[in-house]
Amino acid sequence: MTVNLRIITSLSAGVAALLLLSGPSFADDQSTERTWSEIRSSVIGERVPEDAAGRLVLGAPMRAEDAAIVPIEMHLRLPKEEKAKVIQITLVVDENPAPIVGVFHFENGQSIFDLATRVRIDSYSFVRAIATMDDGRMYMAKVYVKAAGGCSAPAVKDPAEAQAHLGEMRFRVFADRGDAQIQMRHPNYSGMQMDQVTRLYTPAWFVERINIRQGEKTLFTVEGGISISEDPTFRFSYNSTGEPVTVEAKDNEGRIFKQTFLASGT
Amino acid sequence: MRVLHRNAPAFGLAMLAWILAAPCTYGQVPPEPEGYRLKDYRAPTPATLRGATVLDTAGAEALWRTGSASFIDALPQPERPANLPPGTLWHPPSHASIPGAVWLPNVGFGELAPETESYFRNGLTAASQGNMAHALVFFCLRNCWMSWNAAKRALGYRYSAVYWYPDGVDGWKAAGLPLEEARKGP
Fold first, then answer.
1. Is A90 near chain B, with CB under 8 Å?
2. Would you give the end-to-end CA distance of chain A in angstroms?
3. For A121-145, how does the pLDDT look when each residue is reduced to its tens digit (9 = 90+)?
4. ipTM for the whole complex
5. I need a labelling partner for B86 at 20 to 30 A (CA). Which of A14, A142, B134, B174 fits?
6. Cβ of A200 under 8 Å from any chain B Cβ?
7. What is this structure's pTM?
8. Which of A192, A209, A251 to mutate to test the interface with B (most CBs of B within 10 A)?
9. Residue range A5-261 in CATH 2.60.40.2470
10. What architecture (CATH level 2) is domain B8-23+38-78+94-184?
11. What whole-number distance in Å separates Cα of residue A27 and Cα of residue A107?
């Protein structure tokens, strides 16, 4: 029951309604927390994170339609009286063989910020987001997601098509909602996907770093891994200063992709 | 009537939420496909496998207690991609299985690379000690096609006493039966 409660409190009301109605039947708390206890120190060190309630809300579907593209939302909402800021959020899928999905760095610290991306989930798992403050405190939110096979699911786009559009980017601004979206064409092969013809694994080929800045100021930097979905997409809080926005990405084969956009988007 | 009417939108919303949360495929039993299942391995499985005997938990337990059958766990396990940067945290989930079972990961995919296929054949030869009439019980988890595919494949190899235990580790655990850390076949 503690699991249900914790999940419900860390989700938006709409998603919580789905949970309540569908009568979740999770694996027991112990078995699902077991993996986290095994990987925790490798992910965040020895510091024990506090509950993120009232600071960081993590949103994810209870049962994902497509395990290779599970939408994940992180809503950072530090209380007004909080002086410290969040300098990084680590996104983890416990049961993925490569559990660290990505680390989002905020060079200048953030108090209120929304971020959304799409991830691969390999088996029923807790998804967790750990926010690290500039004074070292950590806050953790988690959600249980039923999805499986996301790391080995075949790519949607065939290799030729992926190659032809490699590195193409789109930057869209949704001024009415105060956010913007970066979409990048890259197969982000997990290394766990079997080639349908040769029956061999396609080598891992993924974007390992993305830096997004407006003018000279970095909005955030992502260190990503193989658990980010094909064609990496990030949606984030955005208040334009009018200066151009530059996206610079590097993949694990050393390719650099860089593009500058008008502040108002493409 | 008026009350009903007033609640109708709320009811509609509740139904919509339920439908969204639980895809309609869940709870339905699909028919047996002709060939192997090729994708979406975590989904409801058929009630039967032609040529094999389907076991419920009681049946599986009874056979397990006789000690005369070999239990084959077909849960997949990913291999670390060769070119993953050395510092990347790699932690394939640990797996508890039926005591005494042999874990032959990745043999339940719809199509196998030649090396996986020979790994499977060798694993079965070892488990059956070369006796094609030796009882083999295939399982993984509930709603997992890997055991169905593996059992079907074993029938194709002409093993004659093939059992399929669809509730697998989930059913075993739910019945309060013991589990132990899975032992992978060499």
1. no
2. 47
3. 998 999 999 999 999 999 999 999 9
4. 0.83
5. A142
6. yes
7. 0.74
8. A192
9. yes
10. 3-Layer(aba) Sandwich (3.40)
11. 38
